[in-house]
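ok so for the tutorial part 2 we go from a plain amino acid sequence to predicted structure tokens. step 1 is just haveing the sequence, like this:
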Amino acid sequence: MFTYIAAAGVAALSLASPASSGMLVSYARSGGFAGVQETVVVHRDGTVTTGRGRTAEFTLDDAQIRDIRRTLDGVTTRTSSRRWCDIPDHFAYTLAYRDWRATRCHRLPEDWRPVVSRLDALLRSSARVR
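step 2 — the prediction. this is what the tokens look like for a chain of 130 residues:
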């Protein structure tokens, strides 16, 4: 499954384009009625850092990394859009992969759903283990 290491504090994770770093993908979900701030960074070596009130780190196995890469390669919507951002209490989603970074509000593009689902699952997994 994965190895888990927890540290106190809020994650300050970069959402810059991962093209030149050791990152595979970075993801953030923010907004909603409660002002949620959640982040996930998956590094090429399988190390994952999540931020959801405090920082968690764990490592994915090769099959999990391949699955995330496969879903990321299916993303064709690589531009940001302000559409739906004027809805009260909406969520904004930001993905950064390879040489692109994009933010979408409220309604995810269909091609984002598989990867966002997997990255949200990493957030839930890290929260359960704490």
